[in-house]
Amino acid sequence: MKKFSTIALAFAFPLAVSVSAFAQENESTQPPALSSKCSFLPDAPDKHVVVKGDTLWGISGRFLQNPWCWPEVWGMNKEEIRNPHWIYPKQIVYFDRANGRLRLANPLGDGVTGVTKLTPQTRSVTSNGMDAISAIPNNLIEPYLSQPLIIEKDEFANAPRIVAAPEGRVYVGRGDKVYVKGDLKKGTSFQVFRPGTALKDPDTKAIIGYEAVYIGAVKLERTAKTEDGVDSFTIVTSKEEMGIGDRLVPIPPTPIINYVPHAPDKDITARVVAVYGGVSFAGQNNIVSINRGSSSGIDVGTVLELGRYGKIIPDRTNDKKPIRLPDEMYGQLFIFRVFNNISYGLVMQVTDVVSVGDIVRTPVK
């Protein structure tokens, strides 16, 4: 089988960027050695043709021991890692074995069987990245991107609240009116949630937020005319009946969900706070929350290792004195939603079940 060692480098960016200049700059320097965690699979293919439905994580898994190492084997800088739209169907990923790197190229058929020409290509800004492949399967996280998920402690205390309904009703549904008290901060469209389980930090035992039970959405119809008055809202969607005491949060902008997986810039140690849905254990493709967020340097796309602390057992060879077994790392977590002190992640690859209290940390290189 032919081994590719010198491949023309071409990235497809959504803006008109000089790809050839980028390639010359990178070819002029010897790429640094990859970390041991980012080694290639012994049976990695020579190339992969990108097709619709591929993900960066899935393509990485064809070549690498750890898919989260994708940016390192491309030699990407931080800004390029954050660029969500740069690889498209029909492009070809080559394994440059001589340099230990992956290369991206665009094929132009010349009518000669088995011959592929490579050319730099820029992509019009009008494409808007809509046909770019995603980092992970979007359908697994889309339901969790626009809903509140959690309300942090300070936000919960200050959130506007439903205080009354027409005719003294306690519960109302779609099309009904509700009356709200609180600072709307000039907002007009809100999601309505009901506080759920309090989330406690496994280390400090302090409450760091509340799970948000999503109920529906409301639209402002009339603002209060007096200081002791209330704002009038109409319920536009209702997953279940709303009631007095339910809280409002602004509807967030449509999220960008196409991010390249990357390790955090610094060492992070966290714990699993909860498994979404109120169960005790999670497996692959399940959602969990952890007790670290943007204040700890976590951003969307961060990949962390999952594991659990080593057990303490008696040493049967030395008067049964206690000994601690090594921590066992068993999988990866892809962070897709970040709050100040809490993050939500998708369990990607595991060899064991995820439990509340398990370790979450920066991957060891």
Automatic annotation (TrEMBL):
Q: Which residues form a coiled coil?
A: none
**Signal sequence span per UniProt?**
1-23
Q: What is the lineage of its organism?
A: Bacteria, Pseudomonadati, Pseudomonadota, Betaproteobacteria, Burkholderiales
The organism's place on the tree of life at top rank: Bacteria
Could you list this entry's UniProt keywords, alphabetically sorted. Signal
Per the record, a Pfam family? LysM
Please indicate if the UniProt record lists Signal as a keyword.
yes
Identify this protein by name. LysM domain-containing protein
| InterPro entries on file | Bact_Kbp, LysM, LysM_dom_sf
Q: Which residues form the LysM domain?
A: 46-95
Asked if Signal is a keyword of the record, the answer is yes
